[in-house]
C-alpha cells in the first residue's frame, strides 16, 4: 500500500514545487506588448517580467479573436525579459483554451529568447504537437520573423 502511494506523493510534491517556483517573483511585474506583425495573420507578443493572469488573459483574448477571423495564424513570441508565470496565469482558463485551440489554428510558432526551461519544452513539443515550433536566440530575431511567415501568402 505504501509503495502504491509513492508515485502519487512524488507527483504531488513536484506539482507543489512547480507552483512555488512559478509563484516566486524574480524580477519586476509582468507585462505584455503586441508589436505589429508583418501581415494580419502573424500575431506578435512580447512578454516580460513575472507574467500574471491579466497579461495572459489579454493575450488569450487577442489570440482567440484572431482564431475567429482567420483559418490559421502564425505566432512570434518575444521573451527577452521573461522570468516566469504566476500560478493564476499558468492556470487561467482563457489562456488554457487559447493554448488548446492553437493546435488546430497555429501554423508556425517562433519563440525568441526563451528561458532555458521554456526553450527545452518548446523544442520537445515541436515533435509532438501539430504546430511547427522553433526557438531562436535574440540575435536571430530577423531570422525568426522570416521563418514564422515563410510560405504564407502576403495578402490575408
From TrEMBL:
InterPro entries, alphabetized: SpoIIAA-like, SpoIIAA-like_sf, STAS_dom_sf
Species classification: Bacteria, Pseudomonadati, Pseudomonadota, Alphaproteobacteria, Rhodobacterales
Protein's name according to its UniProt entry: SpoIIAA-like protein
Highest taxon of the lineage: Bacteria
Annotated source species: Cereibacter azotoformans
Pfam families: SpoIIAA-like
